[in-house]
Amino acid sequence: MQRETLPVDVLIVGAGPAGLACAYHLKQLLKHANKAGNGPGEIEIMVIEKARELGAHNLSGAVMDPRALNELLPDWRDRDFPVERVVEDEGIYYLTQTGKVKAPWTPPPLRNHGFPIVSINRLVKWLGELCEAEEILIATETPGQHLTYDGARVTGVQTGDKGVNKQGEQKNSFEPGALIESRVTVLTEGTRGSLTKEASIRLNLHGEMPQTYVLGVKEVWELPKSLSTRGTVYHTLGYPLGQLFGGSWIYSMRDNLISIGLVTDLAYRNPYTDPHYNFQKFKQHPWIKELLRDGKMLGYGAKTIPEGGWFSMPKLYADGLLLAGDSASFLNSQRLKGIHLAIKSGMLAAESILYALKRDDTSSASLRIYKDLVDASWVREELWQVRNFHQAFESGFFGGMFQVAAQFVSSGRGFKAKLLSDETHTHMSKVKELGLKNRDEVLASRAREFDRILTFDKLSDVYKSKTLHEEDQPVHLHVADTEICRTKCREEFGNPCEFFCPANVYEMVADEERGGVKLQINASNCVHCKTCDIMDPYKIITWVPPEGGGGPEYSDL
Ligand SMILES: Cc1cc2nc3c(=O)[nH]c(=O)nc-3n(C[C@H](O)[C@H](O)[C@H](O)COP(=O)(O)OP(=O)(O)OC[C@H]3O[C@@H](n4cnc5c(N)ncnc54)[C@H](O)[C@@H]3O)c2cc1C
After folding, report:
1. Which pLDDT band, with edges at 50, 70 and 90, does 397 fall under?
2. Beta bridge partners of 222
């Protein structure tokens, strides 16, 4: 097939905070260097993004630590930055099934006073406008489908085809993806990037331990009156997660809007664990129910969060390649914050690229400077302090709290210098080992709890994520062997995909021909959270980008 070839100097895959900060900072550095007479000359920067519009696939809490933005754009406050509110009032609560206990003080790393509360969709749009004003080329509806290589050197990206039907045949509207050739490719795909995964395997970029994940499920509500006129931030622990790590957030936004969500650790034992259901249970707590009374749910979304931190950080560079943001584990799990680290890592990637371009050498010999810059920056200092945080909870919540207390007083060390963990899905136990009830009964009894006023079933929630895909396209969730789903997985794990997917993509339906059940993939519901790629116990599900533009249309999430 004839594909258009597009040469650029720097290609950035993913227009989140990391990718856009990288593009913007690089442009500024180039301007200064070229003006001073020691730059590499005209450099073409291109950013590709799979969403229809900038910001539409980004989901966050979000309270932002402004540290990195202060460095990127010291005058950001004067540039119409989209602040929802500024934090003035905060509290951490431990929830029992019906009660709550407020922590007497907020530990310093968890304090947010003075930080902006943002909607990441609006933040990304704002960053995108800054980039476009600098004439940086941003192509939306353009997924990076595969990396291209020359031996071990990354030479660019092949973008996704458009206009292919379910059977893989070309429709009249067929447009082949392009080959974008670049001297440096920066992967800023966010959590569980599909190209990042491909590169990690091919180039062996794996960190000391595999990445570990939690899943955040979120709604935006409009309340009859504002939660508070001050920027209010509540975090909770405890109910409904019991011994499982995770917790909730409630952030006041502009007008009467609030951001409310729950993070569930995916390193769970019980295969019937359902992060979407946990969130619905959380809303039934008397305090939360009262808070949401007479309110209206406006938006829904879900996304995984990479929480492995420093020990899960992959090798950050290869020939022609850099990794930044969530894709490269730049996230502080203790603070549930990654936006500032995404921006800063994007900036450090930009500084490394300038260095390499000036030497006219974009091999790993030049790009390795990125790791040195990360190590010398506040990023390493921040992530090193929490290097053992998430792993501490894998043996249970209360044991984890005990270990974290020890980490607080020993600069992150705790009882052991290095806590390493296995891949997230390996924590899941089999139904028989745990003596669980029949899966169908569990699903049916949970479904009866949703009233569609306070609590919602997955389909009603997906509707509020405004998720849309072209229906007639190949399924973008590749299940290598569906026979396993109907037999082994059903018996051993009770088809956990029906539980962990927050968008009802996976459904076991009656098999009219053979009897029993078979897997039905409702690919058009997919909100691109990547949970299935992480959690399927047999590692037979691979998430690849669908046709460009498909996916959620987040606007205040
Ligand atoms: C529920 C939740 C709550 C959070 N709360 C907070 C918070 O309060 N404060 C905070 O600081 N952080 C928070 N975070 C973390 C924060 O959102 C991330 O750390 C941050 O967004 C990472 O930025 P990024 O640019 O690396 O990735 P993303 O923001 O995920 O952006 C990646 C972009 O790449 C695109 N992309 C992916 N693959 C491809 C491809 N192959 N081709 C083209 N485009 C692609 C995606 O569509 C997306 O637009 C939260 C995260 C979640 C999920």
Report:
1. confident
2. 257, 296
Give how far Cα 150 sits from Cα of 154, 319, 447, Å.
6, 10, 52
Place of tokens 């909730």: 248
What pLDDT score was predicted for residue 470? Answer: 96
pLDDT tens per residue, range 404-426: 989 988 999 999 999 999 999 99
Find out whether the beta carbon of 90 lies less than 6 Å from any atom of ligand 1.
Answer: no
| DSSP conformation class of 161 | P
7 vs 9: CA distance, rounded Å? 7
Q: Whose CA is nearest to atom 12 of ligand 1?
A: 337
- Indicate whether 229 pLDDT > 80: no
State how beta strands 162-164 and 144-150 pair: unpaired
401 CA to centre of own chain = 25
DSSP string for 361-389 = --SHHHHTHHHHHHHHSHHHHHHHHTTTH
Pairwise CA distance, residues 160 & 45, whole Å: 19
- Give the tokens for residue 152: 């071990």
Integer CA distances (angstroms), 50 to 53, 140, 230, 432, in order: 9, 6, 36, 41
Ligand 1 pocket, 527 CB below 6 A? no
CA angle 61, 67, 71 (to 5 degrees): 125
Residue 342 CB–ligand 1 contact under 6 Å: yes
Provide DSSP, 40-93: -----EEEE-SBSSTTTT-----B--THHHHHH-TTGGGTT--EEEEEEEEEEE
Q: How far is the CA of 103 from the centre of ligand 1 (A)?
A: 29
Residue 392 contacts residue 404 (beta carbons within 8 Å):
yes
Q: Are the C-beta atoms of 162 and 200 separated by less than 8 Å?
A: no
Does residue 232 contact residue 252 with C-beta atoms inside 8 Å? yes
Distance 218 CA to ligand 1 centre (A): 14
Local confidence band at 228 (pLDDT 50, 70, 90 cut-offs)? confident
Helix pair 339-358, 17-35: axis angle to 10 deg: 40
CB-based contacts of 34, cutoff 8 Å, min separation 6: 40, 41, 42
Q: Return the percentage of the chain with pLDDT > 90, whole number.
A: 95
Percentage of the chain surpassing pLDDT 70? 100
CA distance 508 to 516: 10
Could you give the CA distance from residue 424 to residue 136 in angstroms, rounded to a whole number? 38
Taking residue 219's Cβ as centre, other Cβ atoms within 10 Å add up to 25
Q: Tokens 């004003």 appear where?
A: 133
Q: Whole-model pTM?
A: 0.98
Calculate how far, in angstroms, residue 471's C-alpha sits from the geometric centre of ligand 1: 26
